[in-house]
Amino acid sequence: MATSQFPLHPQSRYANLNSAIRQPTEFTCFSYDNTRRYHSDDSSLRYYYTPHLPADLNRGFDEFEKHDDTIDEHLDGLLRALEEYERTTGEIVKADVVTWRGMLTKIMSLPFDLRNSFEMNATRFQDTIFIEEHHPFKMSSQRPLDRRGKLMSFWGYKFETLATLSQTWDDTPRSVIEGRGNEVVNNEAQFCSIVKTGFADVKVVIAGEVDAIWDERRPDSPTPHNYVELKTSKRPTSERDDINFERKLQRIWAQSFLLGVPRVMVGFRDNDGTLLSVEEFFTRDIPKIAKRSGRNLWDGKYSIDFTTALLQWLKAAIPSVEETEGVVWRIRYREGMPGVEVERTDEKSFLTQSFIDWRKS
Ligand code: A3P
Ligand code: MG
Ligand code: MG
User: Does the beta carbon of 223 lie inside 6 Å of ligand 1?
Assistant: First the structure.
């Protein structure tokens, strides 16, 4: 089958493209509640409220209500929100690429993390390329976590519970604020923001989970909303830890940048899962941290230029001719490969029938 490749080297090829980047603007959103039911509103959005320190991130691990990530959700929530938005407003959303934020985070991070293999599926429908994660690859490539691995993954969700409220603070009783350490941790619930953005001439619609908001999300308040990304990280205690954290900042930055989330709150913990401190980072300033350190680990501008070039290549590699509508293409990168490749498959489209019917009506 025909394969086309986007070479990763030489890196200079993608430097100084000076890609104009648009400010992401949210145009719709949706929520999953804690039983994973879909709601076309912001009901699962949480409010940031500083946690009490120090805190034990281990507490409640055995009661964790964990989302079953063996289920392949494709682009279902995103397509449903898009369809509902279009039905309500009468506007058909025009984009070159529609995807989950996680797919673009992988691409933006690739030049600085060449060991991070991935597979995605792409399909073109009405001049838009829809991209999803290739779920079977994700399942087969991730090592099963041992108890410590599961516990460490829990720490991230526990921090979200400790650092947020389900209502604004003035609507929340003191006892609820102080009782957050006892709350059952559940990661089925999600609030997802959907934005229009762009990389140079490539128009992109991205959906992604937003952990919390700083103040309030009023329907009439101008975007970007004061959203907050929450992260946990080991408190650096050595030069090696500093380097690891600086690398981690690349992914954190890319993730937040893509949705236009302006602020990241990092909960620093020790090796035993005690939350020690919380530090605020402004997304727009994070690339300067990597620049100033002089370590040369990553570069924000390069990340944007690289992603722009890759998306432009993808648009050309998945041709907009009638016969290719609904064809599924595999986008693949493996450690050691000289580039990202796209290959035609004979799989069936992963778009929902409801979305296809709506667009064809
Ligand atoms: P941390 O990132 O604080 O460790 P996100 O930060 O993207 O909102 O993700 C929330 C949490 O999900 C993470 O918190 C982590 O606990 C968990 N998580 C995300 N990706 C994971 C992965 N690949 N493996 C295990 N846990 C993961
Ligand atoms: Mg999150
Ligand atoms: Mg987070």
Answer: no
